[in-house]
Amino acid sequence: MSFPHRPDAPELPDFSMLKRLARDQLIYLLEQLPGRKDLFIEADLMSPLDRIANVSILKQHEVDKLYKVENRPALSSSEQLCFLVRPRIKNVRYIASLVNADKLAGRTRKYKVIFSPQKFYACEMVLEEEGIFGDVSCDEWAFSLLPLDVDLLSMELPEFFRDYFLEGDQRWINTVAQALHLLSTLYGPFPNCYGIGRCAKMSYELWRKLEEEEDGETKGRRPEIGHIFLLDRDVDFVTALCSQVVYEGLVDDTFRIKCGSVDFGPEITSSDKSLKVLLNAEDKVFSEIRNEHFSNVFGFLSQKARNLQAQYDRRRGMDIKQMKNFVSQELKGLKQEHRLLSLHIGACESIMKKKTKQDFQELIKTEHALLEGFRVRESTSYIEEHIDRQVSPIESLRLMCLLSITENGLIPKDYRSLKTQYLQSYGPEHLLTFSNLRRAGLLTEQAPGDTLTAVESRVSKLVTDKAAGKITDAFSSLAKRSNFRAISKKLNLIPRVDGEYDLKVPRDMAYVFSGAYVPLSCRVIEQVLERRSWQGLDEVLRLLNCSELAFADVAKEDKASSESLRLILVVFLGGCTFSEISALRFLGREKGYRFIFLTTAVTNSARLLEAMSEVKA
Amino acid sequence: MDCYTANWNPLGESAFYRKYELYSMDWDLKEELRDYLVAAAPYGGPIALLRNPWQKEKAASIRPVLEIYSASGMPLASLLWKSGPVVSLGWSAEEELLCVQEDGVVLVYGLHGDFRRHFSMGNEVLQNRVLDARIFHTEFGSGVAILTGAHRFTLSANVGDLKLRRMPEVPGLQSAPSCWTILCQDRVAQILLAVGPDLYLLDHAACSAVTPPGLAPGVSSFLQMAVSFTYRHLALFTDTGCIWMGTASLKEKLCEFNCNIRAPPKQMVWCSRPRSKERAVVVAWERRLMVVGDAPESIQFVLDEDSYLVPELDGVRIFSRSTHEFLHEVPVASEEIFKIASMAPGALLLEAQKEYEKESQKADEYLREIQELGQLTQAVQQCIEAAGHEHRPDMQKSLLRAASFGKCFLDRFPPDSFVRMCQDLRVLNAIRDYHIGIPLTYSQYKQLTIQVLLDRLVLRRLYPLAIQICEYLRLPEVQGVSRILAHWACYKVQQKDVSDEDVARAINQKLGDTPGVSYSDIAARAYGCGRTELAIKLLEYEPRSGEQVPLLLKMKRSKLALSKAIESGDTDLVFTVLLHLKNELNRGDFFMTLRNQPMALSLYRQRIEGRVAALQTAADAFYKAKNEFAAKATEDQMRLLRLQRRLEEELGRQFLDLSLHDTVTTLILDGHNKRAEQLARDFRIPDKRLWWLKLTALADLEDWEELEKFSKSKKSPIGYLPFVEICMKQHNKYEAKKYASRVGPEQKVKALLLVGDVAQAADVAIERRNEAELSLVLSHCTGATDGATADKIQRARAQAQKK
């Protein structure tokens, strides 16, 4: 059971061009250093690089050996060294130490540093400081967009989240603008632009400037993509923090999808070694179940298995000619399908084992209670128990953050006690983690008296001091606040449930969270696209603290074809989850849109919180 | 002087070849040379002989003796051969003896007959046996090539880094090739083999037929082939008695000579000098030796005895039972000076000097003659160069004297070439000495370099000579004397019959504080030989504690290492030892060790104190920032660290770096319940957490008795459902049931289901009339066993709906 696209759904542009572009540029850069050379690659860049140019391509261009950039002396004996790194001080220092060690040993080699996606002045400063600026040649490999799937482009910058939303480092905004610029030169201008969030606004403005500087190129072109929507992650933390129950999201939560592929361990492949599997639209089985709620997946797979068996069985009654046809045309496809099917069934079993336990059921129940805003006290004590039992440090943090955002921050008493409990369980280093979470607005403490703004759902309102309510939030409005409850009401995020929500035939985007919650980010996108402006959403914007940070730039006369108008590029700054992707894909099918996703990285709750955590496991 | 050129034999127009005696051999061979397997290393290296009993059937029972001699025939080693039949012997570039056995195993021996290692040439060789084997030298080291019984070749280009390559098959090869050799082109080893009238070239990938250009017709078989020392040239001996010489690439022919002898030669080797245009091949039969080159005539010698030819860089060594000779092309400088009626400047200078010594005025005439031609510089250089190529010291002297005489009449002649030649000749004469027996020529010596020569002397255990040479040549101590002393010490350490004290003292006396000698290296060697005590004694002399300590740790003398580290006063070193100890010893022993070393203990404490101090700073900062919560948390952590340290000392177990929760858990797991409770009180751990914690820990211990006691100590703040859950996790249904009865009514159904008591769960659910619970129980009802229960629930439901 899959949802076919509506017959009038527009075709997606061909993004494989981006791959070819990146590959050609890399080859050009490698050729700049003629002769045999050893290539040092930063660990984070390895998987993306693998998707662009595999080892044999590198070897063709005279790359001798490949090394990982790590903190130890290089054993390379080549006369030419090439480094492919992210522009980070740490990496430059490492390179400098190599070069200086060679200098001490009286050795002269050629060095080339390729920064991807761009080089920063700070990096060159370090080279200068270390006194090796003249010995090293620097280059940029503007590889910023990796097509992970037909409709998913990733910048593979997981550090974007921490750098921008925690450290306030705006270095990557330029990279985002460059990427947008690249897209618009390749696929025509975007006539309609919307966005929300500080980073979205800055990226947009920077990109516009880039376009103006180089105008003329894109002016005449017919737009292929009608709309672009930029969205900051901090507009909607809630969705990212929820447990995912759509198949692709679950696979990501359980096995971690890395750069579009996942390592299935021996228990899934039912052989003795693990297997790296590419998960995208080319996997026929996967593409049918990726957007499904997990409760349907198993039934679907078993149905599929039966169909497959029937197709195999068909050969019984065949004569020789038919048999020949069957073997030459269908058998290979069937075998392939069979292999994939067994893999996904294995993965499902493994997920079932982990997730159908009572613990998980209760966890989901608590999450839904938090989203809906009742039984807060019970949820709080559930979280406390969670911490006391040392179930999982990241999960506990996730629940605390969810509680904080949905409740406008924790009441001081809870905040203190949960924090104390957490520190007792996992050590005092997490004081820093908590400080990070507060800075990012993920886990905050209510200022005394703040409770009155979220009074409706507060069960424990009697606890706080009523007199404090008089203090207006004149200064506390500066602090980021989620006001989630009000938004939820305004945008109708919690669907009214009459009877069971039928997950087999979803009615709305809430199906990605078992019908309990419509992802906020997706709802905002839906609303804006419907209105083609932010009109009527002022209250929501105010509650999101984004009144000044939303923009819409709509073309007056529509040059664009009606087809392109239904192609929408959604840019998630700070990462998006597979659940959000699934929800928007659903929305597209319902309304006849096609969504294209551009994200700084695919993320999930665990990645989000690990980026905030100070104890790196 | 007239007779000086008596042993010069002209070959063609321009070249002379001379043969002179190096040594009369000291060895006392019982048999003819032909009865031995012979291997002689190039560069004047040692000679290995192995009586070959496997050829004749008669003496199979007698174990042969492997003998190793220096080039002058001085015995170096002799050992009974106890392994299998040997097919071939050869020396590697490091002067190790490689013995290829019939089964493809190669045994490696040192110069003194000490067994080093062995390796196999692969299964294929093992199965088909070795028919023939060659050891060859390339720029990568020494290789082994093997021809198996199945007429296939297996090759390894470097025995130091063994990579076996099986060469492709030669199509239609039924019998062993009549002759074969190894070529080395473009850094790849290839095999050239002759089968009947055809030549084949084997490389890693393919086998190709080749034909030497310009070969006279009528050849039906090749009897012998030879490759030059540098792999540049190739000579082929055909059954028509023809010798073809050309480049090894088989692209160019140099010349051809017909010697009219059809008997297969015993040996054929190239004899040419580097940078000389002359190419010549020496061919040996039983009693005849022939030098053949690009000339219509050849030079012939008669051999009185069995002889063996050793190709060298610039000539051929020929040894037999009684003598060891060297045959080479006379170098240009010598030829110019000594050729009869030569008017070369060098010749005139030599004359002049002689006349000068005779106090004759002719000296002046000769000198003038040279000076008028302006060739004095050239004359001096010629004399110096010629001196280098002379073997006899008296000739060297007279040439050098002439050079020095000529120098007097030159204003600006740089002296270093003269000085260096004097030094080099002195070294060469010393090693050519009969007792040393390394007959290197000047060009070989330059090719080999002094460093390698020193290594070879060290290998022959000629330490004093090596040191004298170093001192004479004023080599830097670290490269020269110290290195040799260190080698000597390492050798000394291996002498098992001398007592530890004597060896240690002897080594210290010799070495003193010579710079660049690392006692720890020597000690490491001693430890490698199993002499730990000696190693410790040697380490006493090591002035650098940083070197002492790691080795002591390796020798598992950790306590000694600790005291050494403390003596050194190097904190880092102490920590190194401490961390090592912490991993190696169990906690109890570790703290016992620390207790005996107050300094280490205090350092260990300091590490904690350091952390506490840092935390204190952090806490102060938090107070300043008015973040009381964080300040308090930091203070708690300080308290915890101190407490953990105390616990570590008292209980001898790791506690540092554990969180509070984990600390308490560890205490309970170790059975220190009192302390655990004390800690919980001190840090005000909430009841709920304590109960969870204790419950999990006791269940992990499977201490059910204590658990029960604990459950009854007071009313559980977390209810009794967790008890049931955890007991079931440990698969203890019996215990679980005990607690199931105590679970409150709210959760009773769940608890009963967990225990597996579906019937009772159904009863409770019906009693409570809870729809959700009823369906939960129903979902647990399986098949036949619970059929009755399922019915019961359905009935109850129906009833409930009626109402």
Automatic annotation (TrEMBL), chain A:
Its main location: cytoplasm. GO terms for biological process: protein transport; vesicle-mediated transport. Pfam families: Sec1. The keyword Transport applies. One of its GO terms (cellular component) is clathrin-coated vesicle. The keyword Transport applies. It is found in: Cytoplasmic vesicle, Clathrin-coated vesicle; Early endosome; Late endosome membrane; Lysosome membrane. Keywords: Acetylation, Cytoplasmic vesicle, Endosome, Lysosome, Membrane, Phosphoprotein, Protein transport, Transport. It comes from the Eukaryota. SUPFAM superfamilies: Sec1/munc18-like (SM) proteins (SSF56815). It is a peripheral membrane protein. InterPro entries: Sec-1-like_dom1, Sec-1-like_dom3a, Sec1-like, Sec1-like_dom2, Sec1-like_sf, VPS33_dom3b. PANTHER family: VESICLE PROTEIN SORTING-ASSOCIATED. Belongs to the STXBP/unc-18/SEC1 family. This is Vacuolar protein sorting-associated protein 33B. The gene is VPS33B.
UniProtKB/TrEMBL annotation, chain B:
InterPro entries: VPS16, Vps16_C, Vps16_C_sf, Vps16_N. Belongs to the VPS16 family. Keywords: Coiled coil, Endosome, Lysosome, Membrane, Protein transport, Transport. It is found in: Late endosome membrane; Lysosome membrane. Its main location: membrane. PANTHER family: VACUOLAR PROTEIN SORTING VPS16 (PTHR12811), VACUOLAR PROTEIN SORTING-ASSOCIATED PROTEIN 16 HOMOLOG (PTHR12811:SF0). Plays a role in vesicle-mediated protein trafficking to lysosomal compartments including the endocytic membrane transport and autophagic pathways. Believed to act as a core component of the putative HOPS and CORVET endosomal tethering complexes. Residues 349-376 form a coiled coil. GO terms for cellular component: CORVET complex; early endosome; HOPS complex; late endosome membrane; lysosomal membrane. GO terms for biological process: endosomal transport; intracellular protein transport; vacuole fusion, non-autophagic. Gene3D superfamilies: Vps16, C-terminal region (1.10.150.780). Pfam families: Vps16_C (PF04840), Vps16_N (PF04841). The lineage of its organism: Eukaryota, Metazoa, Chordata, Craniata, Vertebrata. It comes from Phyllostomus discolor. Residues 517-606, 607-799 form the Vps16 C-terminal domain. It is a peripheral membrane protein. Core component of at least two putative endosomal tethering complexes, the homotypic fusion and vacuole protein sorting (HOPS) complex and the class C core vacuole/endosome tethering (CORVET) complex. Their common core is composed of the class C Vps proteins VPS11, VPS16, VPS18 and VPS33A, which in HOPS further associates with VPS39 and VPS41 and in CORVET with VPS8 and TGFBRAP1. Interacts with RAB5C. Interacts with STX17, MON1B. Associates with adapter protein complex 3 (AP-3) and clathrin:AP-3 complexes. Residues 4-420 form the Vps16 N-terminal domain. This is Vacuolar protein sorting-associated protein 16 homolog. GO terms for molecular function: actin binding.
